[in-house]
Amino acid sequence: MLKVDRPKTLKENALESLRDAITSDVFKPGERLVERNLCESMGVSRTVVRECIRHLESERLIVGIPNAGFVVATISGDEVKEIYDIRIMLECSAVRSCALNADEAVVKELHQLREKIANCLQNEDIMQALKLTTEFYKLIFTTGGKHVAWDLVERLNARISRLRALTLSSAGRKTKGPDNLLNIINAIEQKDTDRAEEICKKHLTEAAEIASKLT
Q1: What mean pLDDT, rounded, does the chain reach?
Q2: What is the DSSP code (8-state) at residue 168?
Q3: Fewer Cβ within 10 Å of end Cβ, the chain: N or C?
Q4: Rounded to the nearest 10 degrees, how much is the dihedral formed by the CA atoms of 118, 124, 129, 130?
Q5: Is 154 strand, coil or helix?
Q6: Strand order across the beta sheet in which 32-33 lies
Q7: Residue 204 and residue 207: Cα distance in Å, rounded?
């Protein structure tokens, strides 16, 4: 069956806009979200706003407070540690499997995605860099046959992107991150599973340390 991309619905566009605003810290942790203001700023109905809020609540980006409405969720130090522990376990396994299975076409696509990520970071387009980073890791997981693991990562992706955006604010991370991805790709291309896993773990451990200091 041929795949035909369809235009995004009004709700999908509003959801993406609100999610991006939370990820990029336009709406800060603990900040109350007022339906009327969101309707006006996004030009959508209250029904759409409420659907978006329910969706983002399921992603743990928003929490409901009794008698106070909804606020942007905070991520505790314990949650940061747990999220990165899960990422290290799943992503290190995925890069090992990818190194065993990747062909020239996959390696080429990984290089192209990494270059786009690096360019976006240099141009301060953080949100597009985050979206491309998700594509980068999806390719690694699917190439390695880690489809169930990717399903688990997708459930965390909203919070993962929020933490990535946070760590990118630290000095040198916008350069160091893409450099680490390049080293991972090179190890995958050489089918060096141990090296790929080692670099991946180091990359995530560094990010975890930065995120822990900033949350």
Answers
A1: 92
A2: T
A3: N
A4: 140
A5: helix
A6: 32-33, 69-72, 62-65
A7: 5
